[in-house]
Q: What sequence folds into this?
């Protein structure tokens, strides 16, 4: 995906981040306080058309 199209007002971006462990939330909280990184297993970006009803 090109950065120029990422902020298109007519398109909504869904960003999903997948972790290989079940306690990902507490690991992210702990990483914030220690300024460390948590490695994700995968990342999915999906473009969704935005329909405006008038």
A:
């Amino acid at each position: 995906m090109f950065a120029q199209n990422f902020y298109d007002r007519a398109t909504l971006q869904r960003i999903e981040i997948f972790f290989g462990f079940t306690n990902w939330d507490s690991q992210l909280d702990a990483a914030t306080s220690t300024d460390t990184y948590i490695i994700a297993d995968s990342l999915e970006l999906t473009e969704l058309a935005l329909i405006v009803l008038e």
About this structure: DSSP finds two helices and two strands in the chain. The radius of gyration is 16 Å.
